[in-house]
Amino acid sequence: MKKQLRVFHISGVGKMFVEGMVEGTIIRVTDSDALLATNRNRILTTNWDRVLKEHIVPRYVVQRKANATDSRWFADLLLIMFLKPSHVASAIGDLGEQFDRDCRCLGRRRAIWLYWRRTFDSLWPLLRRAIGKALRWGAVIAAVKRLL
Amino acid sequence: MSATELTTLEQHLLLAIIGLRPNAYGVSIQDYIKERTGREPSTGSIYASLDRLEEKGFVKSRQGEATPERGGKRKLYFTITAPGQRALKESLQAIDALSHGLRWKGAAV
């Protein structure tokens, strides 16, 4: 029997919380991965590496895409405003990769907080560079005006 | 600052790019610097500095693969160029020359 697992929180490797789990339930995720529920919230398996790699992580990514309407679009917009166009996609991808890693290690709530902190930490150097460029151009224009 | 002079972050970035070759992209560079210096430069400061280094011709970038955890966004891999290596070497030699023979106050360092 195959059953869909809905992961809503992951707390470290070896533990995961699954909605609607009942003590003693065995869920066959694939033919080879059997997950044993030891209590209401915790399930154990002998093959965590494979389960995490093949099932939980892709599911989490799917869940993240489903939540794409969260406020992180605003963080992306801030980066788009100040980053060089050729660097925008990779910088947003880097933040997304770190967010994904933090979700798995620290949980979603903390990952969101870290995502915003990283975004705001990123803005100041970019803003400073943009101001520097604007001032340089301002100085050049002022010098040209004086000459003319 | 002249075009060939490097800031501390630029030195760190160039050293990380050499150390990670050929897998130097934003996250791996950030992790590399954090592991070795204990300080985590922000994504913005890394890209601002890499942009500056690219303008000077010290690094080159190429598009890499996109992965699901990156939301389908491609990685941008960086490699150091010959002028970049020369500038880094000169910069490190200058630090070495300045710190050579210094007598540190207090306990031996």
What is this structure, in a nutshell?
The complex is a heterodimer of chains A (148) and B (109). By secondary structure, chain A is mainly α.
Could you name the ranges of chain A where pLDDT drops below 50 across 5 or more consecutive residues? 1-28, 36-42, 54-69
Gross morphology of chain A:
elongated
- Order of SSEs of chain A: EEEEEHHHH
Q: Low-confidence runs of chain B (pLDDT<50, min 5 residues)?
A: none
SSE arrangement of chain B, N to C: HHHEEH
* Backbone structural class of chain A: mainly alpha
Q: Radius of gyration of chain A from the CA trace?
A: 23 Å
Shape, principal axes of CA atoms of chain B: globular
Alpha-beta classification of chain B? alpha+beta
- Would you report the number of β strands of chain A? 5
Q: For the record, give the distance between the C-alpha atoms at the N and C termini of chain A, rounded to a whole number.
A: 83 Å
Largest sheet of chain B: 2 strands, antiparallel
Written description of the protein model:
The complex is a heterodimer of chains A (148) and B (109). With 148 residues, chain A is mainly alpha-helical. Helices cover 62% and strands 11% of the residues of chain A. Chain A has helices spanning 48-66, 72-82, 85-106, 108-147, and strands at 7-10, 16-18, 26-28, 34-37, 43-44. The longest helix of chain A has 40 residues, at 108-147. Chain B is of the alpha+beta class. Chain B is 52% helix and 14% strand. Chain B has four helices and two strands. Chain B has helices spanning 8-20, 26-37, 43-56, 82-99, and strands at residues 59-66, 74-80. In chain B, β1 (59-66) and β2 form a beta hairpin. Chain B starts with 7 loop residues before the first helix and ends in a 10-residue tail after the last helix. In chain B, 33% of the residues are buried.
